[in-house]
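Exercise 4. Each item below gives a protein and its sequence. For each, produce the structure-token representation.

Item: Proline--tRNA ligase (Fictibacillus terranigra).
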Amino acid sequence: MKQSRLFAPTLREVPADADVVSHQLLLRAGFIRQNAAGIYSFLPLGKKVLHKVETIIREEMENAGSNELGMPALQLAELWQESGRWYSYGPELMRLKDRHGREFALGPTHEEVITSLIRDEVKSYKKLPLNLFQIQTKYRDEKRPRFGLLRGREFIMKDAYSFHADKESLDVTYEGMKEAYKAIFSRCGLNFRAVLADSGAIGGKDNHEFMVLSDIGEDLIAYSTESDFAANIEMAPVNTVYEASGEEKKELEKVKTDDAKTIEEVAAYLNIETSQIIKSILFIADGEPVLVLVRGDHEVNDIKVKNILGADQVELASAEQTHSTMGCKPGNIGPVAVSENVKVIADTAVEYLVNAVIGANEQNYHYKNANHGKDFRVSQFGDLRFIQEGDPSPDGRGSIQFAKGIEVGHVFKLGQVYSEPLNAAFLDENGKNQVMTMGCYGIGVSRTLAAVAEENNDERGLIWPVALSPFDVHLIAANSKDEVQANLGEKLYLELKAAGYDCLYDDRKERAGVKFADADLIGIPLRVTAGKKAAEGIVELKIRKTGDVTEIHVSELVEAVKRHREILAR
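Answer:
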């Protein structure tokens, strides 16, 4: 492609509304343009990179035994009503009506559509397992679209779905898809981790997120310093072994704490450690009050609370709900003399506290020397807190550290969350009707592109990995008005194309400085410049990532390009 014919409008200034590096550089380098908040056009350079990401995904999906298909973005409301998500998905679901008043949704995902398709077409165990995928535009009305392609309202996604006769078959496919995802993100050159995760609105159990480690990530990852353990902080189990102090239990004593409200203020007022305080927090779980107790230096994990209760919905109680249930403000809550209508559960660490400090359900007062079983009741102990840095790794190897991550992929064991309400059933080998077991596997394709850009750049622009670069080589005639340089540029352009390389040739009537600046901004791994030594048949070969420059005779150029691309691809 000659650059004079390429639609790639570059920008010298950083767009005011671009907060992160990937967004800034993809705009400045002419890869994307914003149409509306969270909605982007992919310009030719962006489309080429996107195509390469999709090609890698297709190859690995097919290697994993998945078949590609295409499904409609416009989905019948009836299907979502069958699954129950029409009412529970929330405002992110874009809903609309046709001219006849029939309701539809713009698909944020395709569990309902694929399940109804397989329900109607597959009737026998002999057709299972089945694994299908598509790459398609999805729609979610994000409340706060930001970070460019990392959180948009319209985005490109690869979604795959597998159907099985039993859980054992699902387990095999699930592990195969995890390996396929590792191969995909490795080929894209990403620094990623597969982490244990919560299933969120998709549903199901047993799932992993694939996180690219990044300071701008919206998710916090807990990982081991000495093993491959990694989990979303919401899902990381705490396996800390606690020991009781052996201190003799004292009588409960009510003490005045004046205006001390926070854990830190109470600890300072009473001259104790925050770990000697029990923090009490009221939740509403499926409409019922639940008092959750954790140690003062720990934080309640509402996902773990939801899971231990087996609840569909858990929310922090409002000030009004707290007052009507506990008779006090949220900052004064404690577990002594709590109504029998309130379930009390506690983190494991609380079980080992002796003579703790707790709220007295009265402003400006706390209790000292509180002990469970003696002064207050607990119906259930369990892991209810967020893991912390320095905690032992749950797998027993190393300690926990935190890192931020960008989610680029997610794999789920759905079980029968969709197949049961949608009646996706089959006849087993005994002729009995059985409900299919499902898996679901998603990759944010456009988000992956942005994550690669976020990881691969410097102060001058993008630095694409060889596998994803929009072109293989960026060829520049430094002075297109110089006949020798221009002629050599044309000659090398044809030679590189004939050798099978996708070459971007900058033949524009621009100053050399402008061409070099645009080349650095676009970020193609190898740059070849026909400059002042063109008459001698000498060109410069520059590696974008390192800045290393080598002078090469044109007779050796094709071989040099091949050699350097192989080195950079390692």
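Check: The domain at 16-217+402-453 is CATH 3.30.930.10 (BirA Bifunctional Protein; domain 2).
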